[in-house]
């Protein structure tokens, strides 16, 4: 009898040990639990010819920002796939395109694959979330496009915890908060230790302005989540955001120091750069003094992590750190090289950050005005991009200016920010 994965898909391995380690590693990857690479390495060791184990390991390496090992692992998957089933060859091909950074090729391969094997969620995963193929597409309307992409898979995956969390996030980002909450609560009931579902739960609470409830719930949930978990730093960023929204600057700074700051956090490089810089600007907007050496440290981390422009969301946060640190030569290089599908938005944000750093509220607004209606193009969540709206709001209030723009409804400005402005 052929061995199957946890979703009933047959696997081209005769080793039960490899199968069990593979399923364990995939489950950990989809729930952002520690031990992902160890489990998948054990699967490869038990059956070196197991193509899907190599491919999953490649995705795990990629998620942790380890490009060279990811490329080696996907090359091993390609080599093994010739002896695998048609589904596994298609699976490897799709993930190969993802690891290669071929967004168009990856999306085409994923759509073709899921048309035949809609329960293959590891192939679906690169499309989901705010950092995936939709998130970094640079498209206007990409949030709704992701929701429309995910919704039709409900008949095949309607009670799958990973799918429910992913669909819930897409619903949250398009304002369907009641449906999003139902999805994420069901996902957490199926797997209480799913860190991705916990993350979506925090987003739904943020959008509903239930900051005290988010703070209490996350503190309790995080008590059992190891520091080595992929989402540890970012979930603490949500804790800090809730504290800021409640006017607790001291509590927010304590959370930052303990779990978000460069020396304290662990997680994907993108989160480590964006969470640190965005928190520090939010604190500054709320009137919290930020020492110049802090901005210089964050600029150094950002520059070393992303020495070349990558994607709009990362580049915007690199620009923020550099602007606040006054590193104008590095900013000039970033401006020259910023490209990709959201490069124009990145340049506008860069100009806004530079103007804000020198106290020029009118210049900040001039740079922001064209991108305020379309900043979703850089990627990231609405909660993350609220930083842009908060910056515009403070510049308007502080400078006595009005460009006819108003913050999006439903999410109030933090009280500290209202006072500072």
Can you walk through the features of this model?
- The structure is a single chain.
- It contains 23 helices and no strands.
- It is globular.
- Helix 18 runs antiparallel to helix 19 (328-337).
- The model has no long low-confidence stretch (mean pLDDT 94).
- Helices cover 67% and strands 0% of the residues.
- Among the domains are: 16-102, Tetratricopeptide repeat domain (Serine Threonine Protein Phosphatase 5, Tetratricopeptide repeat, Alpha Horseshoe); 269-420.
- The longest helix has 18 residues, at 382-399.
- The protein is mainly α and 421 residues long.
- The chain has helices at residues 16-31, 36-46, 51-63, 67-81, 86-100, 103-116, 121-124, 142-150, 154-157, 161-173, 177-190, 195-207, 211-222, 232-245, 249-260, 269-285, 292-305, 312-325, 328-337, 343-357, 361-368, 382-399, 415-420.
- It starts with 15 loop residues before the first helix and ends with a helix.
Keywords:
mainly alpha, globular, single chain, 23 helices, Serine Threonine Protein Phosphatase 5, Tetratricopeptide repeat, 421 residues
Itemize the secondary structure elements and their pairings:
Layout: H1 16-31, H2 36-46, H3 51-63, H4 67-81, H5 86-100, H6 103-116, H7 121-124, H8 142-150, H9 154-157, H10 161-173, H11 177-190, H12 195-207, H13 211-222, H14 232-245, H15 249-260, H16 269-285, H17 292-305, H18 312-325, H19 328-337, H20 343-357, H21 361-368, H22 382-399, H23 415-420
Helix pairs in contact: 1-2, 1-3, 2-3, 3-4, 3-5, 4-5, 5-6, 8-10, 10-11, 10-12, 11-12, 12-13, 12-14, 13-14, 14-15, 14-16, 15-16, 16-17, 16-18, 16-22, 17-18, 18-19, 18-20, 20-21, 21-22
